[in-house]
Amino acid sequence: MLIHLCLESFGAAEVIKGPAVEADFAAEVPDAIARRRVVTIFAWIAGFILFVYLIGFPGTVPLFLFLYLFFEARMSWIFSLTLMAITWGFFYLLFQRLIHIQFETGAIQSWLGI
To answer: Which pTM does this prediction carry?
Structure first.
């Protein structure tokens, strides 16, 4: 806040007035492609929710990231696995080791008694 106050008080005047980002959202997309994209996005969201229910949140986050990167973003499996491992490590260290948040177990673990 102090830095912002100094910049406002002593900084140079703005040269350009107008929007900070020039974005053109007028690109025409055929209805069939737009509909397919929307259905795909909702399918990924529904899949994420289903995975959270079945295997729990801590297992879903890295698995979902791998599946999305590999199948939807078409990244290599090595890159996808690497990001999955980094995500799992960060998630585990932050939420379970540092903050000690206990997430609900998934339905599969409950059914199997694990």
So the answer is: 0.69
